Amino acid sequence: MALPMPPFFKRKTDRIPQVGKPSSLPTLSSQRLNLCWIDHADVGSIYNIYSDKQVTRYWSHAPFAHEDDAHIYIESAHHGFNDGKLFQWGVCLKGSQKLIGTCSLNDISSAQGRAEVGFAIASEHWGHAYGREAMGTLIKYALTELGLRRLEADVDPHNIACLKSLEALGFKREGYLRQRWQVEGELQDSVILGLLRSDCTFENTVSEIYPVNASASPV
User: Integer distance in angstroms from the first to the last C-alpha of the chain?
Assistant: First the structure.
């Protein structure tokens, strides 16, 4: 995914109301996964995910070079949550507390009813459709519990696995932005995708949105 690292400081407009705001994100569950709050105890897993050049190949930041980068990432995610602009979950297999990935709602605008999505799965867990399953869970939460009406994604056109996963979840390609990112001297284009709440039905989400078939998606 071509998404920036969570910023430490965001504008305080369009923020989600703070009255009675919880101190962490709720845990979301799917058939095989839990989406959970990320804390500094997860620094090793976060570093393992984002130091992998295969995982960050199409992201808008370079691989992590040191575990300090993972601490900064987690701290930044907490700042984003407190500001009401970034909800970043860790992805765990049920029965385990070790993170195998992350998924997020970024640039959340309650006023406009939209947010940008992103996900990453550790390369040793590719081939089981975990990314699609996590995103299916996140989408349902965002469009129902949070009441958002539109989700967006920014994807490198060479990231075929990610594009296939998002399109299987109902995202539609809406634009192509040339040379949008420059990462370690390499210019990257972006495919912009969108999903509307009106595009979705959720009655059969588990069976329709994220099949367990391991061959269904590379991620």
Answer: 12
Neighbours of 44 (CB within 10 A): 12
Looking at residue 208, its amino acid is: E
Could you state, in order of their start, the residue ranges of all structural domains in the chain? 28-210
- Cα 108 from chain centre: 12
Task: Name the residue with tokens 């105890």.
Answer: 41
Count how many Cα atoms sit within 13 Å of the Cα of residue 144 in the half-sphere of its side chain: 12
Tens-place pLDDT, residues 55-113: 999 887 889 999 999 999 999 999 999 999 999 999 999 999 999 999 999 999 999 99
At residue 185, the pLDDT reads 85
Instruction: Give the CA distances from residue 189 to residues 2, 18, 145, 157, 162, in Å, rounded to whole numbers and listed in that order.
Output: 9, 36, 33, 7, 15
Full-model pTM:
0.82
**CA angle 215–152–110, rounded 5-degree value:** 130
Q: Name the helix (H) or strand (E) containing 17.
A: none
pLDDT digits (tens, 9 = 90+) for 112-151: 999 999 999 999 999 999 999 999 999 999 999 999 999 9
| Residue 101 · residue 136 · CB < 8 Å | no
* SS3 at position 43: helix
CATH number of this structure's domain 28-210: 3.40.630.30
